[in-house]
Amino acid sequence: MDIYICRKGDTLPSLSRRFGIGEDKLMNENGLEIESVTAGLSLLIPNDNSTPESETELCGELKADLLPLRRKKLLEKFCFAVPYSVRLSHEGGITMEESPRNFAQEALNYEAVPLLGVYNLCSRGAYSGELAHFALKDEDSREKLCKLLLSAVKETGTKGIYLEFCCLFPFDCDNYCRFLEKCSALCHENGFYFICTAVPPEFSQLSEKALECAGKCADRVVLLSYDYSGISSPPGAVAPISRVRKSIESVSKSVPAKKLIICLSGMGFDWSIPWHYGFNASPISSVRAQNLAAAIGAEIKFMPKELFPTFSYSDLAGIKHRVCYEDARSISAKIRLCGEYGLAGLWLKRWDREFLPAENIIDSVYSYKKYV
User: Fold this and answer.
1) 198-227 per-position pLDDT tens digit
2) Helix or strand or coil: residue 367?
3) According to the model, what pLDDT value does residue 353 have?
4) Would you say the C-alpha torsion 177, 178, 181, 184 has a positive or negative sign?
C-alpha cells in the first residue's frame, strides 16, 4: 500500500484518473463515506505488488453488537480474541456481559484463541480501584475470584483469561501480584492461556514489581499504549510516537519483548477551544474524524514530531474545536515498532467500527500467526 496526501484542488475523480483506480474502490479502501477529500487527508493507494514483510500476532476485543460480517473479518486475522467479558462486583463476585451465544466456538472456527475478558469497570464504564481492592484484599477474596473466573472460562468455552485491571491503588500492588501468580498458575494447570495488561509507567501507581510479576506470570502482556491525551486532558495526540516508544522501552525492562503486545486505538477526541480543566472532550472514531474533515473542508495537519493528524473547525454555534485522531500514517509508524523492538504483536483497542485505512496498512505489512 502507498500513502498519498491530498492537496488543495484534489478531487476524487482527479485522483481516480491519476492512480487508475475507480472512485468507489478509492472510497472503500479508505473508509470514505462522502465523495469528497480535503487537503492533508491521507489516502491509501492499493499496490498489487506489496506483500507482507513479516508475521505478527493480531489480537483484540469483540463487542457484542459487532455485525457478523465485521466479526468474521476480524476473527480471520486474530490470534487471540476476547468475545466475552465479565466485570467485578463489590461483593467479590463477577457479572457476565451479554454476548451472542457460541461466540467462543465461532472464534475457534476461524482459528482464533477465544479469551474471557476481565475488567475492573464500574457501572459508569470507568476503571475502579475500589472494585479491584475488594477483589484482591485478602487470600480468601483472591481465591474466590480465581475460582469464579476459571468456572466462567469453562462455561463460555473460552481458552483463557484476558485481565485488564487499571487505576489500582498503590497499596494493592502486592495483592495484585499475588493474584497474578495465583490466576496464571490456575490457568496454566488447566491448559488455558493467561494474558494481562500493563499501564505505561508514567500513568501507573503500581511499583515496578507489578510489571516484573506480569512478565513472569503471563503468556502475553498488553501495553495500553494509547490515551496519552483523552477525555479529561488538554488537546493532543492520542498516542504520540515518542511516548509510545518511551513506554515500550520502559516496560520491556521488566517484560520480555517477545511477550509484549502494543495497543492501537481506533479512536480520537474532539475538544472545544479554548480548553479548560473540567471540560471533557468528545470521543470520535478515526473514521468519523476523517469524514468530518472531508465534509467541512477542514485542512488536516500532520504533526511531524509526534506523528499524528489534527484539524480545527467551528460548529454551527460558532464554537471552535480541535480534533486529534489516528490515520494511515500514524498507524503505519506504530505498527513498525513491533519489528523494531521484537514485540509479540498488536492489540486493536476501540476498533468497533471499520477503520479500513489502518487495517489495510497492517495487512500490507504483516501476515498473522494462529495457534489453534
Assistant:
1) 998 888 888 889 999 999 999 999 999 988
2) strand
3) 67
4) negative
